[in-house]
Amino acid sequence: MNIVEKILARAAGRDKVSPDDVIFANIDKVMIHDVSGPGVIKVFDKLKKQGINVDKLWDSSKVWVAEDHFVPSADKISAENIVKLQNFTKNYGIEKHFKYGMGQYGICHTLSHEEALVLPGEVYVGGDSHTNTTGALGAFACGLGHTDIAYVLLKGNIWFKVPETLYFKINGNLPDHVMAKDLILKIIGDIGTDGGSYRTMQFGGSGIDEMSVESRLTLCNMTTEAGAKNGIVEPDQKVVDYLTNRGATNIALVSGDADAEYAKIYEYEGSEVEPIIAKPFSPGNTIVVREAPNVDLDKSYIGSCTGAKYEDLEAVAKILKGRKVKIRTEILPAAISIYKRAMENGLLKIFLDAGATIGPPTCGACCGAHMGVLAKDEICISTTNRNFPGRMGHVESQTYLSSPLVAAASAVTGKITDPRDLN
Amino acid sequence: MKGNVIKYERDNIDTDVIIPGQYLKIHDYAELATHAMEGLDPNFHSKVKEGDFILSGRNFGCGSSREHAPIALSHSGIKAVLALSFARIFYRNAVDGAFLLPIEIDEDTYQSISENDEIDIDISSNEIKNITKNQTYKMKPFSEIIGKIIDAGGLFKYKAD
To answer: Residue A52 pLDDT > 80, yes or no?
Structure first.
């Protein structure tokens, strides 16, 4: 069995599972946030009316809650949703609720790794499509809708069809100025936005072994944009160290068997990957930066679970140090812990000196919610994950997806810029 | 199940056009319905009728896990989406929440059915009758688990303890 089959077999209490088997898997961790949480509450209300007992969760110690999409509260409705969420966690005794304005909080997927909330080998489901991110820690991490999450909260399990696995073997390191974001955009451009549909996308090879945990998180994050059920990297000592540094204990590694089977193997030479962007209006609409259209950008947005981890901010600082931005540039660290480290290490000063605005952790404009959404005809380069019509604001705005290095270089020139070409 | 078809002849209709992100804070289903398909077809809300079907291409519902997407369509009156393929979370949400039927069809069926055609979907025989054109097509049968959850009326009813 490969790693995903092993994790799912364990969770289903079986010796073996194979692709297409339908199983009920026991869940180790579950996450809700300020969009999926109120959805769950609505499902609970409906169940109550049908006479179904919703007084107790299956295990509130396995649940954690993020406030991220519309925070700091964008308006009255989002403020009310936060109050609903707060009452919910109080009523059900959920202790791990990361509240904005009360120490550590941030984007749910960022908290999953910053707070070591999910461990290798676990089955983790979240009420958000980018739950795939956390597979970089060696977990089976999969996004679900709020009816399914409500089911998990009450019963502790959920059905899955065991996915086939696509294996992406990366030979050798990525060159300087090329980031994991470039690699995953290239892969999505190659296989298409449904190229991973219903399947696992697993990453391995020497390029992945050498890659930081945060870069692996970027890869797994955007498996969602290829339609994948989950993304995963076999956990190694780097993951153990990363999680241990964040307080985790009892970490057990898990890996596929020597005779593990994969539906298809794709090979990439790390050295051949170049800075790349996805043009509007699809993450699969890719082109290398040096062939990018000559458009006048209005904004550079550096934020989200995809592109505002500490490593991403470090990359941005490398470009912005001693330079000035030419277009509106917003930088929103993805969690308070990252924000604080960026402050302690001088990154925030570099950003402010360059002229950028620094915002609080939030999903914000990534999903067109608030805090920097785009006007009609505005053109943005962004470290986020999607660029569908209207994704970041007006339906006639445009978003180019890029790595943090490309977004920072483009902020300096006002044009889509390869960081290798910056003077 | 009879209804008229609203056809969007394109692939990758994503959840951001089915229900834009700014409305994710709304959990009033009737209000969500007024914004359904706003990102692609601002006239959708005025033209959709109770019992209508949507017909579209590949990878329908790609993007977010927002259950708001099938909810907004369902509360607009849409009973089924017929598509060449579906994105996984949209498909799962539609079935587990019993909002609408996600029906996979082949390319010929997709080409044959036109906007406003009246069709009759029978999931027990996996047949789609085009009443307007007097044609019959086959839909892809549901997998066993999906068929059972649909028959039960959603995931909670399927495995009620």
So the answer is: yes
Environment class of A47 (CB within 10 Å of its CB; exposed 0-12, middle 13-18, buried 19+): middle
Cβ pair A389:B64 closer than 8 A: no
Using only the alpha carbons of chain A, give its radius of gyration.
Answer: 21
Q: Are residues A262 and A286 in the same domain?
A: no
Specify whether A166 is located in the same domain as A192: yes
- The enclosing domain of A87 has a CATH number of 3.30.499.10
Nearest to B20 among A47, A129, A390 (CB): A390
Question: A267 at the B interface (CB within 8 A)?
Answer: no
> Are A27 and A125 in the same domain?
yes
The total number of structural domains that make up chain B: 1
Q: Which residue of B has its CA nearest to A34?
A: B25
Cα distance between residue B119 and residue B116, in whole Å: 9
**pLDDT confidence of residue A423:** 81
- Report the complex ipTM: 0.97
Residues of A in contact with B89 (CB under 8 A): 129, 143-145
Angle formed at CA B99 by CA B94 and CA B104, multiple of 5 degrees: 45
Instruction: Look at residue A199 and give its three-state secondary structure.
Output: coil
Q: Which residues does residue A277 pair with via DSSP β-bridges, in sequence order? A: A287
Interval A348-371 mean pLDDT: 97
Dihedral sign for Cα B100, A192, A213, A362, please. Answer: negative
Single pTM value for the model: 0.98
